[in-house]
UniProtKB/TrEMBL annotation, chain A:
<dbReference type="InterPro" id="IPR007074">
    <property type="entry name" value="LicD/FKTN/FKRP_NTP_transf"/>
</dbReference>
<dbReference type="Pfam" id="PF04991">
    <property type="entry name" value="LicD"/>
</dbReference>
<dbReference type="InterPro" id="IPR009644">
    <property type="entry name" value="FKTN/MNN4/W02B3.4-1"/>
</dbReference>
<keyword id="KW-0812">Transmembrane</keyword>
<feature type="domain" description="Ribitol-5-phosphate transferase FKTN N-terminal">
    <location>
        <begin position="3"/>
        <end position="227"/>
    </location>
</feature>
<keyword id="KW-1133">Transmembrane helix</keyword>
<keyword id="KW-0472">Membrane</keyword>
<dbReference type="Pfam" id="PF19737">
    <property type="entry name" value="FKTN_N"/>
</dbReference>
<dbReference type="GO" id="GO:0000139">
    <property type="term" value="C:Golgi membrane"/>
</dbReference>
UniProtKB/TrEMBL annotation, chain B:
<keyword id="KW-0464">Manganese</keyword>
<dbReference type="GO" id="GO:0030145">
    <property type="term" value="F:manganese ion binding"/>
</dbReference>
<dbReference type="InterPro" id="IPR039474">
    <property type="entry name" value="POMGNT1_PANDER-like"/>
</dbReference>
<keyword id="KW-1015">Disulfide bond</keyword>
<dbReference type="InterPro" id="IPR039477">
    <property type="entry name" value="ILEI/PANDER_dom"/>
</dbReference>
<comment type="pathway">
    <text>Protein modification; protein glycosylation.</text>
</comment>
<dbReference type="GO" id="GO:0016266">
    <property type="term" value="P:protein O-linked glycosylation via N-acetyl-galactosamine"/>
</dbReference>
<keyword id="KW-1133">Transmembrane helix</keyword>
<keyword id="KW-0812">Transmembrane</keyword>
Length: 410, 659
């Protein structure tokens, strides 16, 4: 078929130029994943039929890790000689975005190679701080040919994306030698949740113009400790497979100023109650973070607090999903009063924060506004979690007989 | 500005001479003496205020200029979007050149390409090179030929300009005092009739094609020693040639396409743009076996000294084991020419908009460059930091490849540096030898990522602190007692003389005679012994083996060290406590090594070579190695010279500055 022919030519081109591309096409990987055991065991030998590359599609998606490739002009000359038409999407380098006033050469994010009726979409992945791979959005510039390929149908590029680094596996399918992620199913699972948000560096700079950053030794020291606490928490939760996101003040710090708010005094994370695991408490204790208090219970208003190094607290709030909103609970220890903090529904996106790939609510503005009100841009040092949040509601009082369970202070 | 030396016959500021005259007149009248004094104080105050305002204005002007150049860059960027119209649709250029005491300018087709009317700046001969096909400015230089040796630089530059280019000359203030015959003859050979007779405070303009016709020349003689020639304005036409004629016909390869782009834009890089026999821009040095630094990013910190950058990158790309993919050049400012140089070599360049002034700006540029380096190479554990005014030794990467593991395994290390502050021609000998030192030399060094990320970056001095980054890094709060590894013979060579804190004298005295390794593939000796505890054992072994020198002799004299080779000698100097460097400084001074502050020490011990013998200096009693001193030996004490004498010898620059 045309498709198999084009893929073959493309792979020939890439191997002749030493460009180590690998297959990430969700549809083809999906087919491969079904037969993965068989494909792994029979590493060579021609397959009887064209099984994977022959279903009629407009394009096939490949990936390329930037650092494994030396940008060569020759590649495109050779491609043209072979009859390919190509398109390149350039963008400013997001790895320099957080830096004041740096401007580097634009970097390639996507290539499209077209031959006859089939196109190859080549997504360039970049390593970023926080041990992950990033690909950029696909945005056409004004002079570009909007009908070059059916852009709407491309699987990658609607949003930027973040992925785990994956090892590669060489396989032979449909008479073609091709590299694929070693574990196609986990890569496929990542795709729908891969959307990446860049920090709002420009707004953060504007914020610091208005409110100059605290660069005192105390602030430096707090940020260092908070960063290492966040790293420790991330490792611990990731090992357990528990999905979490930056919440409250930590989320506000990311969204407003791309850094830890030095007077915030703690690190706040959110976890959906459906992801709760009983192992969480022992895992943190093992990591050297003793439980400081536990409020509520799994069924209602659960909140954990761990003692980090030198006065910094790690607060974990558990979120409960309802039909039209999401909430987490609070408890006042001395009175047994309950509070409820309401949020509009949100999904999770990846971002990079203090050299860490972490989740934040994609709908961050709504999330932050729910919590801190429309004036969230103005720093407030006096914060009372019982009255200051704009989404707080009274939620009754814990029955006295439950206090021993729902108000535990260590 | 600091280097400005006024014309000897020039009167001081006008206001001041008026003030002096007034003062002398009044001096004779006793009754007015009091008034005179008050007046003098008042006037001094006014002068100070006026001067401060002047300085501020000049600064502001300098800033505005920068903003303008930023503007130009933006326009350039816009140009990229829209294909450029070939400029040679017009065949003739109108050129205007003006020369006078206080102002020069050059206009090409009504566009001012040079204008300099700043006070106390830009004295000498201004040279502009135009592309003969497009009329674009390819180079702009000023040679202060009132001062010595600048004419040699001009000759060098003019010789590098390709034949056929259009050269424009104009003098500001004075350009003849140190314009020697070689330079005059060269100007004559370019077609100037006046050049051989140029004299004191003459005004002069000249436009000609290199190796071709003369488009015009004007000259105004100075009538007397104390006055300048009248301003001259030359208006002439220059005929453009076709683009074909202006370009070389190199084979159409990727490398030559880069070369062509470069050579049609800038001038003054000599044979790289030679049509017949261009010098290579790709070097392909031998790869390094088992290269441990192949994946280590290299950050080159640059300003607007494109000729330096060119020289630096050539040596860097020629070093064995270099990996061009890992190199990023960080340019402090939106300067085009340094970027052109970076692109010529096919490297990655990043520009940094200036945010602060002078030293603080350098410091902020360093921070941005280091942060960006670790962002761009997030998996890197180290970064190599280089500056644009360094030559890199052929075995630079081999040296690092053999030693970098120390930085990983030994927590007591702060850096590995390619530079030995005390490694002069007469004091360094062994390319395979390494030291541990308590000072941080810089000038080509390796930074550990976690040191930067965990410690330095979060508290890096903010712009308003106006600190030198290297001084800051040397402070005990940062260094925390950690040491750097350095080679006996430096793997970098500091050639820059036109830096922020550099001047010719300073460079001559402290950098020119520095030893620089040129031997490839040097196998380093016993690298393991550089680790903290092993090094102590090594030092004790050395001291045990060392012969104690005759302490009754003068340590400054050559005869202090016997005429032997390959022996180890030790001397003991007085050092009352850890920070007492009185005798050391005097010794360093008479040995003609770095004496402006203390460098190269390890626990009160210095290691160098004299007459090809290893020469150890131990400070007694502060050094823990004092116990090695035989009881009969009295440590040598050398007295510092009287204050005033000392003040003459030290140039007016921050003592420790090396950037």
């Amino acid at each position: 078929s045309v498709k198999q022919h084009v893929v073959k030519k493309f792979l020939g081109l890439m191997s002749s130029q030493n460009v180590p591309v690998y297959l990430i096409d969700p549809l083809v990987l999906g087919l491969i994943d079904k037969d993965i055991e068989q494909i792994r065991s029979t590493s060579d030998g021609p397959s009887p039929e064209c099984k994977y590359f022959c279903s009629p599609r407009d394009f096939t998606t490949f990936a390329l890790l930037d650092k494994t490739w030396k940008h060569e002009v020759d590649l495109f000359r050779t491609a043209e000689k072979m009859g390919f038409q190509w398109l390149r999407i350039l963008h400013k380098d997001p790895r320099l975005d957080g830096m004041d006033d740096l401007s580097g050469t634009e970097i390639p994010l996507h290539y499209i190679f077209k031959l006859a009726s089939h196109a190859i979409h080549l997504v360039i992945f970049y390593e970023r701080s926080g041990h992950y791979l990033w690909h950029g959005p696909l945005r056409l510039k004004q002079h570009m040919d909007r009908k070059f390929v059916p852009f709407q149908k491309l699987h990658f590029g609607r949003y930027p994306g973040a992925y785990e680094k994956s090892e590669l596996l060489s396989v032979s399918i449909d008479d073609l030698k091709v590299q694929i992620p070693r574990n196609p199913s986990s890569f496929l699972e990542e795709i729908p949740h891969s959307r990446f948000l860049e920090c709002r560096y420009r707004e953060a700079r504007a914020f610091f113009q208005l409110y100059p950053d605290d660069t005192s030794l105390d602030a430096v020291e707090f940020r260092r400790k908070a960063k290492s606490l966040l790293h420790l928490a991330a490792v611990t939760l990731n090992n357990l497979g528990v999905k979490f996101w930056l919440s409250s003040g930590t989320c506000l710090g990311w969204y407003r100023q791309c850094s830890i708010i030095p007077y915030s005094k703690d690190v706040d994370l959110g976890i959906f109650i459906r992801d709760y695991k009983a192992d969480i408490i022992p895992a943190f204790q093992k990591a050297g973070l003793p439980l400081k208090h536990k409020f509520g219970k799994v069924e209602d208003s659960l909140e954990l607090s761990f003692q980090g190094d030198g006065d910094i607290k790690l607060d974990i709030f558990f979120f409960y999903e309802e039909d039209d909103h999401i909430w987490n609970g609070g408890t006042q220890a001395k009175s047994g009063k309950k509070f409820k903090y309401l949020f509009p529904k949100f999904t999770l996106c990846w971002t990079e924060f203090v050299e860490l790939k972490v989740h934040v609510p994609c709908e961050t503005l709504q999330y932050v506004e729910a919590n801190y009100g429309p004036e969230w841009r103005v720093p407030v040092k006096m914060w009372d979690w019982k009255s200051s949040p704009s989404n707080v509601q009274d939620n009754g009082v814990w029955p006295v007989e439950e206090w021993d369970e729902v108000i535990q202070i260590f | 500005m600091e280097e400005w030396k006024g014309s000897p016959a020039a009167k001081p500021h006008k206001k001041r001479s008026w003030y002096l005259a007034w003062k002398y007149k009044l001096m004779n009248q006793r009754a007015l003496r009091k008034l005179c004094q008050t007046g003098a104080v008042l006037f001094l105050l006014v002068t100070v205020i006026v001067n401060i305002k002047l300085i501020l204005d000049t600064r502001r002007a300098a800033y505005e200029e920068e903003e303008e150049s930023t503007q130009e860059y933006d326009d350039e960027m816009l140009d990229v979007e829209v294909p450029k119209q070939p400029a040679n649709t017009r065949k003739v250029l109108d050129v205007e050149v003006y020369s006078s005491r206080s102002k020069v300018y050059v206009a090409v087709d009504g566009t001012t390409v040079l204008e300099d009317d700043a006070r106390e700046q830009g004295r000498g001969i201004h040279v502009i090179v135009l592309n003969q096909a497009t009329g674009h400015v390819m180079a702009k230089r000023v040679f202060d030929t009132y001062s010595p040796h600048e004419d040699e630089a001009m000759v060098l530059f003019l010789n590098m300009v390709a034949r056929g280019r259009i050269l424009i000359f104009t003098i500001k203030d004075e350009g003849s005092f140190h314009l020697k015959d070689t330079a005059k003859n060269l100007l004559k050979s370019l077609g100037s009739q006046v050049a051989p007779f140029l004299s004191w405070r003459d005004m002069w303009t000249f436009v000609g094609k290199k190796g071709g016709e003369v488009y015009g020349e004007k000259h105004a003689k100075s009538p007397a020693l104390s006055t300048w020639g009248d301003p001259v304005l030359l208006k002439t036409e220059v005929h453009l040639t076709s683009l074909e004629d202006a370009e070389c016909h190199w084979p159409n390869t990727e490398l030559n396409r880069r070369r062509k782009t470069f050579c049609s834009k800038v001038e003054g890089y000599g044979s790289v743009c030679s049509c017949k026999d261009p010098t290579p821009i790709e070097f392909n040095p031998e790869p390094l076996k088992n290269n441990k630094v192949f994946d280590v990013p290299v950050a080159v910190i640059a300003g607007n000294r494109p000729n330096y950058l060119y020289r630096m990158l050539r040596s860097l790309l020629s070093a064995q084991g270099v990996n061009p993919e890992m190199i990023t050049v960080f340019i402090d400012g939106y300067y085009e020419e340094p970027m052109d140089v970076v692109e010529l070599f096919g490297l990655a360049g990043i520009q940094h908009t200036p945010i602060s002034i002078k030293n603080a700006r350098v410091s902020q540029h360093y921070k941005a460059s280091l942060t960006a380096t670790f962002n761009l190479f997030p998996e890197a554990k180290f970064a190599v930091v280089l500056e644009e005014d360094l030559d890199i030794s052929v075995d630079f990467f081999s040296f690092l490849s053999q030693s970098i593991y120390l930085l990983e395994e030994d927590e007591s290390l702060y850096c590995i540096s390619a530079w030995n502050d005390q490694g002069y021609e007469h004091t360094a000998e062994d390319p395979s030898l390494l030291y541990r030192v308590e000072t941080m030399p810089g000038l080509g060094w390796v930074l550990r990522k976690n040191l930067y990320k965990e410690e330095l970056e979060p508290k890096w001095p903010t712009p308003e602190k106006l600190w030198d980054w290297d001084m800051w890094m040397r402070m005990p709060e940062q260094r925390k007692g950690r040491e750097c590894i350095i080679p006996d013979i430096s793997r970098s060579y500091h050639f820059g003389i036109v830096g922020l804190n550099m001047n010719g004298y300073f460079h001559e005295a402290y950098f020119k005679k520095h030893k620089f390794n040129t031997v490839p593939n040097v196998q380093l000796k016993n690298v393991e012994s550089l680790k903290k505890d092993a090094y102590e054992i090594e030092i004790h072994r050395l001291l045990g083996e060392a012969e104690v020198l005759d302490h009754s002799k003068n340590p400054c004299e050559d005869s202090f060290v016997p005429d032997t080779e390959g022996k180890v000698y030790v001397m003991f100097i007085r050092m009352e406590q850890e920070a007492d460097f009185t005798t050391w400084t005097q010794l360093a001074k008479c040995l003609h090594i770095w004496d402006l502050d203390v460098r190269g020490n390890h626990k009160g011990l210095w290691r160098l070579f004299r007459k090809k013998n290893h020469f150890l200096v131990v400070g007694v009693p502060a050094s823990p190695y004092s116990s090695k001193k035989p009881p009969s030996v009295t440590p040598i004490y050398m007295e510092p010279p009287a204050k005033e004498e000392g003040a003459v010898a030290v140039p007016a620059v921050p003592a420790a500055e090396q950037t």
